[in-house]
Design brief:
It is found in: Cell outer membrane. Residues 215-644 form the TonB-dependent receptor-like beta-barrel domain. Keywords: Cell outer membrane, Membrane, Receptor, Signal, TonB box, Transmembrane, Transmembrane beta strand, Transport. This protein has one domain: TonB-dependent receptor, beta-barrel domain (Maltoporin, Chain A, Beta Barrel). The protein has a 22-stranded antiparallel beta barrel. Helices cover 6% and strands 52% of the residues. Strand 16 (327-336) and strand 17 (341-352) form a beta hairpin. It is mainly beta and 670 residues long.
């Protein structure tokens, strides 16, 4: 009954907007429907050069102000695996991350969809395009949508250097350089970032270099090759509780710490993980008179060193996990049939793999390291974007997805096989009510197969209540309606309602006891408001609001990991208010973010699931400011102050966030 009422409400809003604003107009704006992040207008586009001038931020920092996105981090410890960035209430196992259109996991398929956001230097990003929901036929295996990170391509015979210093020993050095010679182009970037531990033992050191080549075969064909290498060293967060052995009052009280998978003993000071990552991709782009074709091959090659010292100082183990050896082939194309119809189509094939690990020392108390499982996914789609009249535009798509899973080593006797497939129709309409107002409506089928981590723990958890049950893909429907209105030259607003009902929702947290099973369904719905007001030609403010709700039904009463009636760490209200000023040689950015109270289970992920209890994190309001001065056309300096009022808060229970801190950045272009 609840489902039908919410669905009807969305439909009523759409048709009310259609009736109220209908007027005759001579033309129709073609770019109002979102179907592909790379080719058409996305739900949200963040232009990094204007949103972040000179400040040393990360991509999650920049995403915080976007309606429909929530960031949940741990001070300078950085990522929180699948939970760092949530898109419409979904963690990263439930949405797709792309870099220049190429699928990314960037921290190994063993952990599911864990995205290492620090692996993407913000100063190399041109813009971020976001599709919310599963309305695009071009992208499969997603409930929450798509985040497509577009890197800079315009370093033509020049580049820049950035030097950053800041609180807590922050240091960052970046170099970008590119040249273009006739038909050949080359660009490179290098980045080194270090930071002292804020939470106990959580020091950070990241080094990265990337090379991009392109060759113009002729006026319509281009070859591109990209390679990215990273070495990321991060100390494990160690619990820091007064009265316990090793407590250090130089660090904040931290109620829990990190652990390594498949190991005995709790890591102590000096324990760390170091990621060695290489990403490669090569692509061919072709422009036809009536369309385009792009073929891309990509490969990830990643291993992770895990060095675990016990609290006594004794070495527990020193080992290497080969966390990602995945590869894939991607084809996308388009064809203009006539003035009213444009076809889009594509194939996406992924082989998700990881490799054999080894121990440098002390492996007697830990399990062997071999690739237990492998999965192959295949997606194909076709869609038609057509103009129905002066006011109407439609987009109808059909997507086919298949997932095959099996063991990848004869010793993985517990791993079973899985083979499932589905067709997913997508239907989107846009109506130009008048010259100032556009209404859109979307209905789409949702289908998501289990991630590698979910597939693995479904079979490997033989001690839990979920053992022996068949794991099914998630299936459901999503609905969305929006009204976009330009009041005048200064004021713009957009309101979006969305609703998703997902059957066979996979209930899983990547922590002991690793129960992974289907529940009856999960429901996610909410309201997003985006507002912009241009005060003067050189200053503006924005105000974004998200109202978000989640429900779960069918959670096993013996499952103590996560809330039983809703998803953990999903605040009902988030508000972002910002001010931008650009005049003469000055650039000012101020933002204020409010997050309402939220519930979770104690130590979620919980180290003591049988003793778990529901906790509440209070609301918090954080203020940040950034000021940039252009010294001349090639030099600038930036000062940024974060958490201006030194707010004491946490985004994950037990992990306090930093108080007031600063960064200072000098940029030299050449």
């Amino acid at each position: 009954m609840k489902k039908s009422k919410k669905t009807v409400s969305i439909m009523i809003l759409t048709f009310i907007g259609t009736a109220v604003f209908a007027e005759d107009i001579p033309t129709y704006e073609l770019n109002k429907i979102t179907v592909q992040a790379e080719e058409q207008q996305a739900d949200a586009v963040i232009e990094v050069s204007s949103a972040n001038i000179g400040a040393a931020k990360t991509i999650p920092d920049l995403l915080r102000n976007t309606a429909g996105i929530q960031v949940q981090a741990r001070a300078n410890a950085g990522g929180n695996e699948d939970l760092t960035v949530k898109l419409r209430g979904h963690d990263s196992r439930h949405y797709t991350v792309l870099v220049d259109g190429v699928p990314q996991s960037m921290s190994g398929v063993m952990g599911g969809g864990y995205v290492n956001w620090n692996a993407i230097p913000l100063n190399m990003v041109d813009k971020i395009e976001i599709i919310k929901g599963a309305k695009s036929a071009a992208y499969g295996q997603t409930d929450g949508g798509v985040i497509n990170i577009i890197t800079k391509k315009n370093f033509i015979n020049g580049g820049d250097v950035e030097l950053t210093t800041g609180s807590n020993g922050r240091r960052q050095y970046t170099l970008n350089y590119g040249i273009q010679k006739d038909t050949f182009g080359f660009a490179m970037y290098a980045n080194k970032s270090t930071e002292d531990a804020y939470l106990r033992n959580s020091d950070y050191n990241n080094q990265q270099i990337g090379l991009n080549f392109h060759y113009n075969i002729n006026k319509t064909n281009q070859l591109k090759f990209n390679i990215d290498h990273e070495e990321l060293n991060r100390g494990l967060v160690i619990a820091n509780i007064p009265g316990t052995p090793g407590y250090n009052n130089s660090y904040p009280i931290t109620l829990t710490g990190d652990t390594f998978a498949s190991s005995n003993g709790t890591p102590g000071d000096g324990s760390y993980s170091k990621i060695y990552r290489n990403n490669y991709n090569i692509s061919w782009d072709s422009q036809r008179s009536a369309g385009t074709d792009t073929i891309t091959y990509w490969r990830n090659d990643e291993k992770q060193r895990e060095y675990s010292l016990l609290s006594t100082g004794i070495l527990a183990f020193d080992r290497y996990n080969v966390t990602d050896q995945s590869s894939g082939l991607l084809y996308t194309g388009s064809h203009i049939i006539n003035k009213k119809h444009t076809l889009g189509y594509g194939i996406d094939y992924k082989m998700l793999r990881y490799g054999y690990g080894w121990y440098n020392s002390n492996n007697t108390n830990s399990s062997a390291l071999y690739p237990s499982q492998k999965t192959d996914t295949l997606g194909m789609y076709v869609e038609d974007t057509w103009i129905l009249g002066k006011r109407w535009q439609g987009n109808a798509g059909l997507r086919y997805d298949q997932m095959k899973g099996n063991r990848d080593d004869s010793r993985a006797t517990q791993i079973g096989s899985m083979n499932d497939q589905s067709f997913s129709p997508k239907l989107n309409f846009s109506f130009k009510n008048n010259k100032s107002t556009t209404t859109t409506f979307s209905v789409n089928r949702i289908w998501r197969a289990p991630s590698m981590a979910e597939f693995y723990w479904h079979y490997m958890n033989t001690w839990g209540f979920a053992a022996g049950n068949n794991l099914k893909p998630e299936k459901g429907w999503g609905y969305e309606a929006s009204v976009d209105h330009q009041f005048n030259k200064k004021i713009h607003t957009k309101a979006i309602l969305y609703y998703q009902n997902i059957n066979n929702y996979i209930n899983f947290a990547h922590t002991y006891p690793f129960n992974c099973y289907n529940i009856n369904h999960a429901t996610l719905w909410g309201l997003e408001l985006e507002n912009t007001y241009h005060l003067t030609p050189y200053s503006s403010i924005f105000l974004n609001y998200t109202n978000q709700h989640t429900e779960k039904d069918g959670v096993n009463p013996n499952d103590k990991i996560g809330l039983s009636n809703e998803l953990d760490y999903r605040p009902h209200h988030t508000i972002s208010l910002g001010y931008q000023f650009d005049r003469y040689n000055w650039h000012v950015r101020y933002d204020m973010t409010f997050t309402s109270n939220q519930s979770a289970t104690l130590f979620f992920p919980s180290t003591k699931p049988l003793n778990a209890k529901v906790i509440n994190i209070g609301s918090y309001l954080i203020h940040n400011v950034s000021i940039t001065k252009d010294l001349n056309k090639n030099e600038s300096i930036n000062i940024s102050l974060y958490n201006i009022f030194d707010k004491n808060y946490c985004e994950i229970y037990g992990y306090p966030m930093e108080g007031r801190f600063y960064t200072a950045t000098f940029t030299q272009k050449f």
